[in-house]
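Exercise 3.2. Students should predict the tertiary structure of the chain below and write it as structure tokens, then compare their answer with the key that follows.

Predict this chain's 3D structure.
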Amino acid sequence: MTIQDNRGPLTRLLMSDSGGRKLILLMLVLAVIIPFCNLVFAEGSFFHISTYTMTLLGKYLCYALLAIAVDLIWGYCGILSLGHGAFFALGGYAMGMYLMRQIGDRGVYGNAELPDFMVFLNWQELPWYWYGFDSFAFAMLMVLLAPGILAFVFGFLAFRSRVTGVYLSIITQAMTYALLLAFFRNDMGFGGNNGLTDFKDILGFSLQSDSTRAVLFIASVLALIGGYLISRFIVTSKLGRVLVAIRDAESRARFLGYRVEYYKLFVFVVSSMLAGVAGALYVPQVGIINPGEFAPINSIEIIIWVAVGGRNTLYGAVIGAVLVNYAKTVFTGAFAELWLFLLGGLFVLTTLWLPKGMVGLWDLIREKYRHRQNTAAPLAQGDQT
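Answer key:
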């Protein structure tokens, strides 16, 4: 007799993932409480949460989604990408181009067709690759396609050539640095060194409004949950088991008949799109996107977030991203010149003594506590006897 499982796909997905369930529950609670406290309670109230704090938390959530994207390929497929900052930045530029087109004649030079930086540089007409960005739907499509196409082309060439390990990491970083140099050029049409900024509104709503900021925060929460569920679905499926096999023994997976390069390419493209969505949500909350987001150090920091939180867990990547960026906010304000040394020391500490990150440390503490409890119980029964 067969027992039918009537549980929904989402329930089955999270049944064995207690960390994921707690993460989603926490995110949903934050999506309600933080905007409510910001919009309902007055500034002088104890329960009021400032717009600055809400925006800062929204930025952390964007970083958390980016960390999930990296953990998906590094933790489950063994692809150590040092170029995911490029995909994040491309998604951000796609959103920034849309926001710039919404300014219209409200810019400094009052030109309804050209952004201020183009007028300043004596551009006569809008470049062809800016066409369509006055449409929100087109811009959101580009948020996915711009990083996705780059990842597809790069991944197809790299994985077909069987570039792996440190060599793959080096060329992903080289790709990011090449984009950094390209976007710094004024003749590229992306604002050069200053990038894109001075945004006014999104979908007709002012970006300076608290309610708009609250909606962006909620959108960041929902995107993080969606990114987590997509990644979790992939890693718990048959595809995910193949990815883990590729991570642990790529040659053996090839010998068994799997087209390893196709599996790698698929997960690499999905990961790049998640990073693009994170960048698109980051830009309207921060208010600027410039070539500095392509800096190789940014991509290296993402790896540190995942390592600190706990590689190969997904929710650990979220924890690491939030904790490290909160520490960065605190220490760059108090000890700005020491932050990079602290970050490097944190990575060394994690590598040597916490190979499974904060999640692994918590599991170790919990396991030792349970062992102590199980050991103490027979001794207590013996004393009573």
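Discussion points: The first strand starts at residue 196 and ends at 197. Residues 17-380 form one domain.
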